[in-house]
Amino acid sequence: MLVTQHIQKQKNQRTNYCLKDMQKGCWGRICQLRGDAELCQRMREMGFCEEMEVGKLSNGKNILCWIGGAKLAVAQEYAECVVVKNK
Amino acid sequence: MAILLVGPPNCGKSTLFNALTGMRQNIGNYPGVTVEKKVGIALDSHGNKVEIVDLPGVYSLAAKSIDEEVTRDAVAGNQPGIDSIDGVMLIVNMAHLDSQMGLVLQVCELGLPMVLILNMVDLAAKNGVLIKKEELARRLGGIEIIQTQAINRTGLVEVRRALSKMQASTNPRIWRGDEFFEEKMSKIESILTGKNGGQELLILSMNAGKEAAWIDPQKMREIRAIEQEYSEATGENFRAEILRKRFDAAVKLSQSIVGRIIDPWSKLTISDKIDKVLIHPVFGWVFFVGLMFLFFWGLFTLAPIPADYLDEQIGHFAGWIAEIMPEGMLRDLLSEGMIPGVAGVLVFLPQILMLFFVMGVLETTGYMSRAALLMDRPMRLAGLPGRAFIPMLSGYACAIPGMMAARTIPDARDRILTLMILPWMSCSARLPVYAVMIGVLFHSIGISPVYQALAMCGLYFMGTFTALLTARFLRKIWVKSKPTPLLMELPSYQFPNWKYISQMLFERGWQFVKRAGTIILGISILLWVLSAFPKSENPAMQAENSYLGQIGKVVEPAFAPLGFDWRVSTGVLASFAAREVFNTHMAILFHADEDATEDEELLSQNFASAKRNDGSLLFTPDVSLAVLVFYVFALQCFPTVIVARREMASWKLAIYQLVGMGLFAWGAAWIAREITLLFLN
Questions:
Q1: A chain contacts of residue B265, beta-carbon cutoff 8 Å
Q2: With contact defined as beta carbons under 8 Å apart, do B199 and B76 qualify?
Q3: What is the ipTM of this complex?
């Protein structure tokens, strides 16, 4: 039982990560926004809603990503608030 | 009858507004072009007049910045000048509908008659976006949905037809909560049942935890009590719950309505390919710097061709006036005051048009957002948000629209910091002074367009770099918080909108000519009168003994450490009416001695050969440099001071800015002169 839980936990750790750590050229699905409520609201307004698909175009201080057909530049600080899981 | 035009930034609202009303509202391919409401009259399909209100772009009706507040207040029925709202035209970018669905639901919830316009159908088709239009209309309670491509007027007939027959959604709120939540919601709805009930409820729900000043305090107390009950029972914030449920509903609706037949990874779009170069950490900068240098080089190689022609025509006109008029005061006024005064500014029309042409191309292609992204890092090092770059770039044309563009910066501290340093972006009014004084500076060593372009680049760089350094200093000692990180949409590239650019060039050119024919002409007459009276017995001493000379003698000591004589000092003072008046002023004063027309080069030659009373040259390299440095830094523009006061909502800050920049300009000019003298000696 414990072993199964451990494996599941590891799996979760591998599949849930923040947008900042997502690999360039990959797609993911947003599963959570964390941090300040006002920031989360702003992010949702820009399209970063839970269950939306997000594609990462580039790394760097400002991350470029695709969401809902739009291309956005997102600062690393904000990208850390977006939790993504494998699509 | 007023119809509000609402939508996210950069989705084509102003383009549609222009197409419907025939007006020439500014457009651009970057977020934040419209920062205040614009009203125009359109005709519906029956020929009836309809008032259309173009509003600043919003991603949501929860306002964060000043421009967004305008839109929020307008839809809530609280915007002065809009008596009643007869409907809302919600316009969204069809290719980005899924990320803009939250706003669609918010506007539906207003309960107002509305129509949903899916603009940029061409882009959607190119990106393989498919929308189940009928299904979307049904889910949104039967509202009309129209597909358009506003830029080439596709779908305009349907939009005009819809103007007179908009209908409110029969199901304004498509999302629902559990029984307990709905019970509380109905109670609040029953409290907000006035004329603007739907709007109030929506706006209230958008501001989690904040007070809504426009709602009756008694009603607000009742609402707070209901929210409190909900929070105590569930442990959740009621308004936050509303937001969450609405966003969830938006995502579900998007997933069932919007489909994509092209995988974005399978094929790079042209925009993606261009971005690979233009926002590349190395090539992006090479392009940016190259573009700037090419522009300045063009100012000295291409612009003089039409400028020479213009000058020739003005010269013919001046010669014709001298021929047909008898000798006398009127001829002197025309030939020594009005014509040289106005011509000293007017010959720079080609340079000004070139500046606006480049700005127009940058604005309509979508490069502005890329430049802001590229500049984010240096801007943040300077303590400014990346978004501040767009107002700063606009400031190169004129500080006033630049200051208004700063309304899109959500954080008040970031915005005020941007406003404080923005006048150091060299505006177009400085261009004539720079061009002439660079000519004077290089007169002795031979004028090469490359040197002049480099010197011009240097002046623009000096203003910008000092602005960034000052921003960093002010951030450290005054604002003491970090600049807001970047979160910005990058629009797809578009071909330059030549129609808009040519319209803008015509309008800006006309404004410039009008300014030359009104303000500059008026000042020319005033300066001529001041320099021609009282009449001196010794014609050689006329200017010095005139009223202008007497004023100059009073202010001369203040500018003497910079090497300015009374003529330059009065030129600096006169520039507070308009910076380019410096050329006008000097052209009038030097005209008596030099029989030349006011071509830029000849004007430079006139300046370069001007002498002091002791026979030495007035514009030695150190003085020329001091004049240039002074004009880079001095805030000699009263309209800018007035707008700065309005935007910062503080006379104190505006006056600090005016005085601070004046003192800084004086100090910098003095240092520049002293260093030059050290080298010269």
A1: 25, 27, 55
A2: yes
A3: 0.85
Q: Is it the case that residue B629 has pLDDT exceeding 60?
A: yes
pLDDT tens per residue, range B519-544 = 888 888 888 888 888 877 776 677 77
CA B170/CA B190 separation, integer angstroms: 18
B 76-135: CB under 8 A from A: 93, 95-100, 102-103, 127, 129
So what's the pLDDT on residue B203? 74
Tens digit of each residue's pLDDT (9 = 90 or more) over B167-198? 888 988 899 989 999 999 888 888 887 666 67
A12 touches chain B (CB under 8 A): no
Looking at chain B from residue 2 to 61, which residues have their Cβ under 8 Å from any Cβ of chain A? 59-60
Mean pLDDT to the nearest integer, B404-425: 90
Residues in chain A closer than 8 A to B60 (CB atoms): 41, 45
How much is the average pLDDT of B439-444?
A: 78
Nearest residue to B563 via CA among B664, B677, B662 = B677
| Alpha helices by DSSP H, B533-650 | 542-545, 547-559, 566-574, 581-591, 600-608, 621-633, 638-648
Instruction: Label residue B266 left, alpha or beta by phi (over 0 means left) and psi (-120 to 50 means alpha).
Output: alpha
> Any chain A CB within 8 A of the CB of B256?
no
Predicted model pTM: 0.81
A73 interface with B at CB cutoff 8 Å: yes
* Cα–chain center distance at B281: 27
Q: DSSP secondary-structure letter at A61?
A: S
Rounded to 10°, the helix B179-191/B238-257 angle is: 110
Contact A49 B264 (CB under 8 A): no
